[in-house]
Amino acid sequence: MTRTAPALALVLALALAAAPAAARPALSLRGRAVRQGEAVLVLVAGNSDRRAPTASFRGRPLDFFHAASTGTWLALLGLDLEARTGPGTLRAVLRDPRGRAVSATLALSVAPGGFAVERLALARPFATPSKSDAERAEGELARVHGLFARATPKRLFEGSFSPPLPGAPSSRFGLRRILNGSPRAPRSVMDLRARRGAPVRAPAAGVVVLAGPLHFSGNTIVLDHGLGVTTLYAHLSRMLVAPGQAVRKGQVIGRVGATGRADGPRLSWGLRLGDARVDPFSLTALDLDELLKPRAPDPLRRSPACAAEGLPPAPPWGP
User: Exposed, middle or buried by CB within 10 Å (0-12, 13-18, 19+), for 253?
Assistant: First the structure.
């Protein structure tokens, strides 16, 4: 026994040296750009399936959720249209397959959004709302912001987001109007051209948290898609859903109109990621289907059972 012990120890040492080290999880980003008003997808690959990674950017935590593939986690980072530009650090604690903590950072530089500025001169009654209108608008804005803050903590959407209708933009997201020399708040919605009565469809699964008339935005619907993702649809002629109702992707939730303060038929479409005001087209640009929906197996790939002896060779079109 004493003669074989050193040999056994050598074999074990060689085996341990040859064993692959646990793979380190990897942190990466996907999106159109890292700039004001954008939705960015944070992706962690090779993470433990049992313990989610944690991360924050400029002190704001991210909510991670499982992707379809093993060990892959995702989170949506919203960069507000007035987010501070310049360098910042995404700080994360990842978990390797054994559950051990691995620190990771990504240096990000938030670029300016490049939003348009429009200067208008209007008669004073049109440029300045009455005191009662201003007070009503302020109350309605606080009500809608409260809905954004109470978004469902679990994911309700199942894959990629789609535009609610195919109309072209008529007023760009982030546009800042200067009325009679006085700057106004930038537009946090995207206006889409459409004929009156055109169907407005849910861009993803969610729950209706508001369906009612507001003074400035008219008939308005707000959908909660979970994980802080909330969308808004304004100036509708008809609302076809009710608060508390679950909706599926592509379901018609309303019809285009010109209710509220609108000068013609259009859809005002807004998106919030947490409290970040984000261009909704930056979310539709993310291919979430690729990451959230498992792919069907290749029908031409032979199963392991086909490797048994005595079977005919694979056909030329198979691997």
Answer: buried
**In sequence order, what are the beta bridge partners of 224?**
207, 230
CA distance 113 to 108: 15
Residue whose tokens read 């261009």: 279
User: Which residues 6+ apart lie within 8 Å of 38 measured at CB?
Assistant: 31, 32, 78, 79, 113, 278, 279, 282
Q: What span, in angstroms and rounded, lies between the C-alpha atoms of 231 and 222?
A: 6
Cα dihedral across residues 159, 151, 278, 190: positive or negative:
positive
119 strand-pairing partners: 178
Fill in the DSSP letter of residue 147.
Answer: H
What tokens does 146 get?
Answer: 């409260």
- Written as six digits, the tokens of 154 are 């679990």
Q: Residue 91: in which H helix or E strand, if any? A: strand 86-95
Reduced to 3 states, what is the DSSP secondary structure of residue 62?
Answer: coil
At residue 23, the pLDDT reads 76
Q: Which ranges of the chain have pLDDT less than 70?
A: 1-22, 121-137, 149, 296-319
Here the tokens at position 266 are 């259009």
* Amino acid identity at 177: R
Q: What are the CA-CA distances from residue 287 to residues 148, 292, 293, 294 (Å)?
A: 24, 9, 10, 13
pTM of the model: 0.81
Neighbour count for residue 106 (Cβ, 10 Å): 16
Q: How far apart are CA 293 and CA 160, in angstroms?
A: 10
Q: Which two tokens stand for residue 230?
A: 């909330």
Helix locations, the chain, DSSP H: 4-18, 124-127, 131-149, 280-284, 288-292
Sort 203 into a burial class: Cβ within 10 Å, 0-12 / 13-18 / 19+.
buried
Q: Please tell me whether residue 45 adopts helix, strand or coil conformation.
A: strand
Q: How far apart are CA 188 and CA 231, in angstroms?
A: 11
- pLDDT score recorded for residue 130: 65
